[in-house]
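This part of the workshop introduces the protein records we will be handling. To make this concrete, we reproduce a full record directly below.
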Amino acid sequence: MRAAAAASASVTPTTNASASLTNSNHFNFTSHRKICTSLPISTMKNSHKKSTLVVVRAIKDRKEMETETETENMKEYNKESTTKQQQPLNLEDVNPVGLGRKSRQIFDEVWRKFSGLGQISRTTRADDKEALDALLIREGPMCEFAIPGAQNTTVLVVGATSRIGRIVVRKLMLRGYTVKALVRKADEEVVNMLPRSVEIMIGDVGDPSTLKAAVVGCNKIIYCATARSSITGDLFRVDHQGVSNLTKALQDYNNKLAQLRAGKSSKSKLLLAKFKSADSLNGWEVRQGTYFQDAVASKYDAGMDAKFEFTEAGDAVFSGYVFTRGGYVELSKKLSLPLGYTLDRYEGLVLSVGGNGRSYVLILEAGPSADTTQSKLYFARISTKVGFCRVRVPFSAFRPVKPDDLPLDPFLVHTMTIRFEPRRQRPVEAPAGAKQDLRSFKLILEYIKALPTGQETDFVLVSCTGLGVEPTRREQVLKAKRAGEDSLRRSGLGYTIIRPGPLQEEPGGQRALIFDQGNRISQGISCADVADICVKALHDSTARNKSFDVCYEYVAEQGRELYELVAHLPDKANNYLTPALSVLEKNT
């Protein structure tokens, strides 16, 4: 067992590779959590590529373990603890090895009792329901562990009988949430797997008509369901279409509530442009220009040209070529927002586009609409894929063209421009022998919308990294999982996508966790740790609109360490997720 040698609220880089995980001498008390971050590339002596990694010591807070036991054992345990605290300390009492052994023994005992907590209500009479709920949630020891606002939050758990879902349900109850569980069949076996105070909803994620009643009254969703077979139809129904159906059902419910208040849901996207007819192209202007003029080279340039048209196939296509050195072509329009709407109420843009996989520059012009001479230009580079895709661009990604200008204020945005320039274009995947001319482009526009802003996550999705899946079915599983993730990202809901390593049936909070982005993790993780992350992400603003991988801490090879250790003293709620996710990239 490790104990903390130092405490710091922030991550501190080091310039010495010997301070890495494998060479660090550190300690960590049971109530502490440990955070690690990557070493900057410039400070590493070896040539291996480094990436941002965050490691968190996932040891359960002693108060949480205590609250998960029965009341009688709690009183006895507290009495013994008080007696021990009155005794003088010696070297054996602070021996890290001894402390680690004792903490594991205490945790194993508490876990055995906690695993049967969900069955307590099954042995009681029906007329004891109110008294039991008051004992377990409001009047019992769990009242100290309740999260502020949890009693006003209803969470729908999809896949509540899965390995992760069963633990998620109980963790939510311990914290005072109102819990609804979506199951396909409410037979006796399923009912006995869930605590009695959980409201059971019968429905199929593949059937949208059965989800309308399930989302009524729900504020948030945790999606733990997964297909039980590798049949393509099952994978599509559960992992892809199921996520899409639930996000739509929740959005429809939010819009219905907003209509009752004579307004529009704050979780709905704002439509800026939809290209469905020839008339929708009105107001868009095609322009061309050059960054510099080369009089000699211009004699040999083939020029540039571009057009924006609505084809017979029903597509709005912006296409052309740029052979002029330093030249560019662009498509621009002055925005016209609905009355009472401004972009400062939104956090970014989403574009549904298709084409031949070129990259573009998205430019926003901001300033007083009455005097455009005072406007400032802000740009962000976007990449597309061959075929159709959705591109999310947060307003925080836009940078001023002139470095001295102030950051972008979405409230002042009045013009949008999509620019193509031959420089910085990269070849895309194509059949062998196919020629690619990076100076030509084709962009099919479907719609442009503004993404609603928010502080918290609305939808938590448990996906997977592909580790632990049979190689013969891994590609099929990942294809369905990634399609479900994409449908969630473009829904407009605040999302958190968790990709755990291979799941293990063992107590959580025993080992450090690695949070990463980049599909590089190699270890498994307990179902209990994944469930704890799901619950903590509900009210953590740093978890909104982020996708990340998570697994157990591993020991890196000598000379290839990716992170160092920094001690972290958590707050009362033992919140390790905020510092872990704060350094990870958003809108992923």
